[in-house]
Amino acid sequence: MDNSSKTDFFVIKALEDGVNVIGLTRGTDTRFHHSEKLDKDEVMIAQFTEHTSAVKVRGKAIIQTSHGQMENN
Ligand code: TRP
Question: Could you tell me the superkingdom of the organism this chain comes from (predicted)?
């Protein structure tokens, strides 16, 4: 696997209170391992790591990754 997949950062800006950023584990067992709650205008800067291969965002937010920016409504 290309090592950059574990060093990529992403940015999430909450557009409402109570946005959930949920980290999912890397490997054969895919499960939630961390949930972070953001209130409006809070920003989280995070990385894909050895432990985290996927992220689920629930709620209105702006999400920036190396693949571009999107808005979750
Ligand atoms: N301990 C986690 C890790 O190193 C922290 C983390 C990194 C995380 N990126 C995340 C948690 C994204 C939730 C979402 O993988």
Answer: Bacteria
